[in-house]
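Weekly structure sync - notes
Attendees: PM, LS, DV (DV joined late)
Agenda: review two folding runs queued last week.

Item 1: First target. Sequence and structure tokens pasted below for the record.
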Amino acid sequence: MRLVAFAPPGARSSPRLGQLTDAGVYDLTDALGSDLASVIARGARLAGVSGPLVDSAAVTLLAPLPRPSKIICVGLNYADHCREQGIEAPAYPILFSKFANAVSDPGRPVVRPRATEKLDLECELAVVIGRRAKSVDREAALEHVFGYTILNDVTMRDLQREDGQWLRAKGSDGFAPMGPAVVTRDEVAEPQRLRLRSSVNGETWQDSTTAEMIFDVATLVAFISRTIALEPGDVIATGTPAGVGHFQDPPRYLQDGDLMRCEIEGIGAIENRVADERPRIDDHIAAAGLG
């Protein structure tokens, strides 16, 4: 099942929960409620649930989990991403976090803050936890997964280098576009064989597969749960493959108006346009007659 949060026609309508299909969106709100995180937490039965059909062209898709209690991200988790940097693969998963303020809708513009001139994208498979995981074995880890979605780990490369850690560079407002759907685990037979692609203005930047992961989904769930209890609705962003702008030759960064697209086989795609925060630093300089 492909579960989505959506805004129905009418700007004043409250977000609703639906099942995305080729025919349209089945509105499941009356049967399940409007909050996917609550549906996951209470272990609601999904089989046989249905509702009225809404034209998918008439709705706006929203982030399926707008306020996850935890977003745990994994750095340097693709072998090809390590190779493009000329570094060795890490011996164990490198973890960092984003806050809920970073979550954004799959079609909402991403604001490029005045603080950066080196904005980059990272297409990532995101894992949604379905039931509490604490010190689980790798062999049982996938039983705690509810499903999968896409997360764009937007990053300010200049701040990442200046700060020496990644919180501000990756956790700023709107820096985790998510969606378009959470695809339940039963529909993703092998999470380590999914093709990932990202593009900017139609030009491919990343094109890889989850087979390049150094630590697979099961290993990540088990590793994290050793010290951090994973709760229903928590999100794990599993890392990004080679091809990000920062490591191209020469480096390339996102500009005002650029259209980012992140796509993962079997899950779908999200598109977000870059919009500069105004005024930019250069605008201040020009206004002061210093340019």
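Item 2: Second target, run right after the first with the same settings.
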Amino acid sequence: MTSVPDRARVRLTGISSRAYEHPADRSALVALRKLTGFDTLLKLLNGLFNERAMRLNFLASGVKVSERQFPHIYEMLRDGAYVLDMEKVPELFITQTPLVNAMALGTNTPFIVLNTGLVDLLDAEELRAVIGHELGHVLSGHAVYRTMLYNLIVLATRIAWMPIGYIGLRAIIWGLEEWYRKSELSCDRAGLLAGQDVEASRRVLMKLAGGSRLAEMNADAFHEQAREYDAAPDVRDSILKLLQLQGNLHPFAVVRFAELDHWVASGEYDRILGGDYPRRDTDRNASVGEEVRGAAKAYQESWNRSEDPLIGMVRGAAGNMATVAGGLFDRFSNRGGGSGGSGGGSGSGNSDDN
């Protein structure tokens, strides 16, 4: 697929973040937002001092992107916010470091940070996809829950001497880390929707794995590498893959590449560009039980595609879990009247690495 010129980029009017969120990401967000006041409380606690201090730090040590500083990046930012129909264009800072990374920070007034290592590595359309990725985190409002994960990790280190409490806390952290990784898959999709250039989004993930020498890489071979990783023939390899994920908040590059390709091949990307997507004004009607069932179905479909021997042993369990969990959430929502925060699309920031 060739690069899409600016004039051909489709604006996704009123798009909800539910349109691009991975089902596991979306179900967690919908459930948490149904807890009345939960977002507000965490945003208040997180925004009292940390957000102001972070912004002041980048204002002092980085370069604030504008019409006069990095104007080409500023136009990408404005264009991405326009395509995703965001109410406000977040601030963006460039900071000097060779580390290839990008972040979206803050809750009340979110802003984006790009490292020079990333800016130097990517071409214009690739950079547009990364900016769209970070805008996706802002639109989804991921920061509140990522802040919760960070605080739990800090707490776990302090109570490591209490075996029972520590083990229970680590179980919660493991679940949140899994959600965190799925939120990265969500925003890879957001980056594609903002840039609307499939090949550019694929190149970003290849460069994150292999650096700047793109001429030495091949997209088909990279996809085959993802299949090789998935189909490790020994159960011992499966266990090693699980252990390698512990403490890792990002899916591996080949996994992200394969997941994004699968999402495009499913037709969902084209349907969204054609105007078939959920709108923000319907977010409050999102059903927690339905989203939980959707998440379990997504896991089951992923497992059905997988050749991993360990996954083969537990394949089929997701459907049963979905029925039970979805029913429980439905009963809980009916008892509580289903009131609460929105189900997505109107979040106000996040704290995330690309």
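Discussion on item 2: Residues 329 and 335 are 10 Å apart (CA to CA).
Action: LS to circulate a short write-up before next sync.
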